Amino acid sequence: MPNRAFDWLNQAIKDLKHAEESRCSGHHEWACFAAQQAGEKARRYRQGVPLSYSR
User: Fold this and answer.
1) Residue 23: how many CB atoms within 10 A of its CB?
2) Would the pTM count as exceeding 0.70?
3) Has residue 54 been placed in a domain?
4) Which is more confident, 49 or 11?
5) Is the pLDDT of residue 32 over 80?
6) Backbone phi, then psi, for 22, in 5-degree steps?
7) Is 29 within the bounds of a domain?
8) Structural domain contains residue 30
9) How many C-beta atoms lie closer than 10 Å to residue 36's C-beta?
């Protein structure tokens, strides 16, 4: 099975973009949530966690 950890980074970038869009439109609670999700996914990328990993 190929290592798809890079997919975590791609999704983190999308989540961070969503956070910025939410912040700019005044949806601060969604901005915080999306930013937190981006951080989690970036951490998983850095640790090399396969995309199918879940707790």
Assistant:
1) 15
2) yes
3) no
4) 11
5) yes
6) -65, -40
7) yes
8) yes
9) 12
pLDDT at residue 34 is higher than 50: yes
To 5 degrees, how large is the angle CA 31–CA 35–CA 25?
20
Q: Answer yes or no: is pLDDT of 47 > 90.
A: no
Domain with 11 in it = 5-47
Tell me the residue type at 7: D
**How many whole angstroms separate alpha carbon 33 and alpha carbon 51?**
20
- Residue 24's CB is within 10 A of a number of other CB atoms, namely 9
With tokens 């879940």, the residue in question is 54
Biggest CA–CA distance in the chain, Å, is: 42
CA distances in angstroms from 31 to 35, 42, 50, 55, listed in the order given: 6, 16, 26, 23
**Number of folded domains that form the chain:** 1
